[in-house]
Amino acid sequence: MRYMKEIVEDKNLEYATKWERKSNLAYTQKDIDVVRAEWANHVMKF
Question: Domain of life, per the record (predicted)?
């Protein structure tokens, strides 16, 4: 989810470049928890 969010928010639409840049990236648990909290807050509004 975090990676998808970064793709959507990035103004650069060159997906090949994004894939190269992110291929070795590892997200921390804190990074993942931030996205989970954002998603939960969004869902709870409905």
Answer: Eukaryota
